[in-house]
Amino acid sequence: MQIFKFCQDNNFVTSSLSARAGRFMTQHGEVITPAFMPVGTLGTVKGVSPQQLSEIKPQVILGNTYHLSLRPGDAIIKSLGGLHRFMAWDGPILTDSGGFQVFSLASLRKISDEGISFRNHIDGSECFLSPERSMEIQKNLGSDIVMALDECPSGQTERSLLEKSVSRTTDWLKRCRNYQLDGHQGLFAINQGGTFLDLRLRHLDEILDIDAKSPFQGFAIGGLSVGEPKEKMNAILAELVKELPADRPRYLMGVGTPEDILLGIEQGVDLFDCVSPTREARHGRLLTHLGRINIKNARHRSSEEPIDPDCCCYTCRTFSRAYLNHLFRAGEILGLTLNTIHNLSYTVGLARTAREALLNESLPKFAKETRQRWQMEDL
Predict the structure, then answer these.
(1) How far is the C-alpha of 321 from the C-alpha of 315, rounded, in Å?
(2) CB atoms within 10 A of CB 126
(3) CA 76 to CA 86: how far, in whole Å?
(4) Is residue 11 exposed (0-12), middle (13-18) or buried (19+ Cβ within 10 Å)?
(5) What is the pLDDT of residue 120?
(6) Counting Cβ atoms within 10 Å, is residue 366 exposed (0-12), middle (13-18) or buried (19+)?
(7) pLDDT at position 378
(8) From the candidates 96, 144, 260, 270, which is the catalytic residue?
(9) Separation between Cα atoms, residue 86 and residue 93, nearest integer Å
C-alpha cells in the first residue's frame, strides 16, 4: 500500500530535461517538490531555532538514527512523545538509517551479514546496528520518512567489494521491509553500486523485485558524493534517475551544493539533503545569487550592503555585511546563527524557485541564467 501518494504537478517534460514538480502527503504535512531538506542530525538544525527555521519554510528536516540512538537514546525520545514533540517541529521529518554515519567510523566498525558492530564515538562502548534495530530506532523516533539500512562504501571502493556490498544491502532491505513500522511511516529503499552503472541497475532490479511484493514509499540514491570524481557522479545520476519509478519520490542523499541541486532537479530528483549550507555558514562562507562570498574578508568590514540584495531572509532584511563581518571576527554566536539563516534560506529557496520555473516552463532559462551568475568567488 502506498502511504505517500506522489502526484506530479507538471504534465509536460521538456525535450532535454526530465525535471518534475510534485507533491506527496505525510501525517505531518504535505511535501512539495523539488525540495532541499536541512539536516538536523541531533534533533536540531545547527545554529537556528525551530521558530527561525519555520520562517525559512523547509518541506522536510532530517534527524539521524545513529546519533539520536546514542544520545539521548531513542527510548527516551519515544517516552517523551517522539522526535516531533521532542524538538518542537510539527512538519515532516526524515530519519537516516545510520548506515552513512557508521561508514564514517571505518576504524571502529566491523560489517557482517547480520549487521554492523562498532564502538560509538562518544564513550567507545560496543554497539550493534542491524536492519531490525535501525527500524526499531526510527519507529521509536516516529519519523515520517524512514530510510532502510544500507552499506555505504567509499567512492574509491573496488568493484569486487562493491558487489558484495550491494548483495548485503539487498538482504538488509528485505529485513527492513519485513519490520512492522507505524502506520504513518513510509520506508524508502536506497540504491547502491558506486560508480558502476551496471551494478546500480542490477541493484535497482533487486529493489524493484522486493517492491513488487510490498511497495516502498520512495527511492533514494546513496553512495554518491563520497569521494568519487564529480563527473562520475553526474554521469551515474543522469542514467540512474530515469530508471527509478515515476510514481514515488526520488531522493539524492547527502548532495546539496547549489550546483548539484540544480543538476539533480534537471535530471528528475525530488529531494536533497546536505550539511553543506550550515557548515559553510559556520565558517563564514555565504551563498548568494552571484556566487559565494567570505564574510570574513576585509572588503566587507564597512559595507552597508546585505549579503544578497535579492534575498528576503531575516538576515538580509535586517543586517549589513559590516555587522556580520564584525560578529564573525568577534566570535559572537549570533553571527553563526544569522549566517545559517541566510544559507538555509538560499538553498531551500533555490529548490523552490526552480519548481516555479519548471511550472512556468522556464527551467532551462532559469538554470542557464543561474549558472552564469555564479561567477563571483570571494574566498
Answers:
(1) 10
(2) 9
(3) 10
(4) exposed
(5) 83
(6) middle
(7) 59
(8) 96
(9) 12
Q: Cell numbers for 325, please give them.
A: 563581518
DSSP code, position 39:
B
**Confidence tier at 377 by pLDDT (50, 70, 90):** low
Residue 308 among the catalytic residues? no
C-alpha to C-alpha distance for 225 and 275, rounded to whole angstroms = 12
pTM for the whole thing? 0.96
Nearest to 347 by CA among 25, 21, 28, 57: 57
Tens digits of residue pLDDT in 6-20: 999 986 544 456 999
Instruction: State the burial class of residue 317 (Cβ atoms within 10 Å of its Cβ: 0-12, 13-18, 19+).
Output: exposed
Centre a 10 Å sphere on the Cβ of residue 85 and count the other Cβ atoms it contains: 12
Residue 315 and residue 324 in contact, taking contact as beta carbons nearer than 8 Å: yes
Which is it for the CA torsion 290, 352, 33, 339, positive or negative?
Answer: positive
Element (H, E) at 354: helix 333-359
Active site residue 96: yes
> Could you say which of 260, 270, 273, 308 is catalytic?
273
Strand order in the sheet with 22-26: 7-8, 22-26, 29-33
Q: Spell out the residues 6+ positions from residue 283 whose beta carbon is closer than 8 angstroms to its own.
A: none
CA 139 to chain centre: 20
CB neighbours of residue 164 within 10 Å:
14
